[in-house]
Write a structure and sequence with these properties.
Strand order of the largest sheet: 9-10-8-11-12-7-13
Structural class: alpha/beta
Number of helices: 12
Helix content: 25-40%
Largest sheet: 7 strands, parallel
Shape: globular
Distance between the termini: 55 Å
């Protein structure tokens, strides 16, 4: 078992086989009336978490194994790593905008800063990281890239492996088959950070504003403990939260903005389309006429498309009316708890589906070449402005089809819809002002 930079539960080890360099540290801070878990940072009343024995446990992170106050964590200090020179084998070329952000990331790594990279969806954030990662490896540093979404990690893994072919990269997530090893680059979900302790010199959090990371105190606590005290911390997002912008104002972090995609084309702005009583129609077993017309239009274009639906219940009710209206259409549905989720996403990538109907689970971090998008019921409360910006960003990412179509179907404009469109228009304006788009 690997202990370096990890928090290993006492129940997972055999003490008689431990190396002398493995140390024990407390699992909980115990006060008069409360206990605080030192893995997730959550505080509980003693009376609510007492075991039958004279000890306490943490229910907040129990899915990773039970933390008990009468046990210890086992850990081991990270060893000095070998320097890996010229580790990046990526042969691509960055745009001027990407190059500027790449240099800012490099500076952050050199100075061990906290940096917020505010880049539009489809800007090529991953490629902008490569120079900074290569520098970190050249001075013997350990790197971690974490994302709240499994889909993002799975998509990013082969790209990292391809870009750093001489480097050991491991992928960690809840149902993943790969075990942790002391490798140079760790790619993981943000929940996996709870298992680390002072492990990383460079910690990159992708999609910092995404569920379940955003506003999650335990996962933010995990970030603090997973990185070394003087580590570089890089946040990536297309939709920064107010908290992050406030931290910029108070100089707790530095922000850099990339308002354009690498292909120098404008972001596709949403077209608002009235769809009267869309929810009632679907609940009555009908396919709304406007939705049918837009689907016919997108099918005639010959490109695959996504339909985002606000609830799983509504998604399921849409299937039969769509099958009746389009009997030859090759499509399926996907949502967070779908056991075949990753398989279906891959089918869409491979061009085996004409349509994928999805919940907000695919709002970010997943790329499908040349797709158009319909947001069905865009005025539903589940579609926050940040979600709508991210969903809009699925369109126009590919140089072969940098436009695509984007429709928000609604029966009353929401503030989130208006704000999302405003943000997209503002980024296009900023990109024109900086000479970063051709049209």
């Amino acid at each position: 078992m690997e202990f370096r930079g990890r928090l290993v539960l006492q129940s997972e080890v055999r003490e008689e086989k431990l190396s002398p360099s493995v140390i024990k540290i407390p699992t909980m801070k115990i006060d008069e009336k409360t206990v605080t878990c030192l893995r997730c940072g959550k505080t509980h009343l003693k009376a609510e978490v007492q075991l039958q024995i004279e000890a306490y446990y943490c229910p907040s992170c129990i899915l990773l194994g039970r933390v008990q106050s009468n046990h210890f964590f086992y850990t081991q200090e990270m060893e000095k790593r070998e320097k890996i020179l010229n580790s990046c084998s990526w042969q691509g070329v960055l745009s001027d905008g990407q190059e500027r952000i790449s240099k800012e990331i490099l500076i952050a790594v050199e100075k061990r800063e906290t940096l917020l990279v505010h880049a539009v969806t489809g800007a090529g954030k991953t490629e902008m990281l490569f120079e900074g990662i290569e520098h970190a490896l050249s001075i013997g540093q350990a790197v971690c890239i974490a994302s709240p979404r499994v889909d993002v990690c799975v998509e990013l893994y082969p790209r990292l492996k391809s870009a750093f072919q001489s480097v050991d990269v491991c992928l960690l997530y809840g149902k993943g088959e790969e075990e942790y090893r002391n490798c140079e680059i760790v790619l993981c979900t943000t929940h996996q950070l709870l298992r680390f302790y002072h492990a990383f010199d460079v910690l990159i959090i992708d999609e910092i504003d995404a569920f379940p990371f955003v506003d999650n105190a335990e996962l933010n606590y995990a970030v603090t403990h997973a990185k070394k005290k003087d580590a570089t911390l890089i946040y990536l997002t297309a939709t920064p939260t107010k908290k992050l912008l406030d931290e910029e104002k108070s100089k707790q972090l530095r922000r850099v903005i990339l308002p354009a995609r690498y292909h120098r084309k404008s972001l596709v702005t949403p077209t608002f389309v009235w769809c009267n009583k869309w929810e009632k129609q679907v609940n009555d077993g009908k396919l709304p006429r406007v939705l049918k017309l837009k689907m016919q239009e997108l099918l005639a274009d010959g490109f695959p498309f996504l339909i985002f639906v606000p609830t799983i219940e509504l998604m399921k009710k849409l299937v039969l009316p769509i099958q009746k209206a389009f009997p030859k259409l090759v499509f399926t549905t996907v949502y967070a708890e779908d056991e075949k989720r990753l398989e279906k996403v891959q089918q869409m990538r491979d061009g085996k589906l004409q349509l994928l109907i999805t919940s907000t689970i695919l709002e970010r971090g997943v790329t499908f070449a040349g797709v158009s998008v319909i947001v069905f019921g865009a005025n539903h409360r589940v579609f926050k402005s940040s979600a709508l910006v991210q969903i809009s960003g699925r369109v126009g990412r590919n140089i072969q089809r940098p436009n695509g179509k984007l429709y928000f179907l609604h029966d009353g404009r929401s503030r989130a819809m208006v704000e999302a469109k405003k943000q997209i228009v503002e980024m296009n304006r900023l990109a024109v002002e900086r000479g970063m788009i051709d049209e």
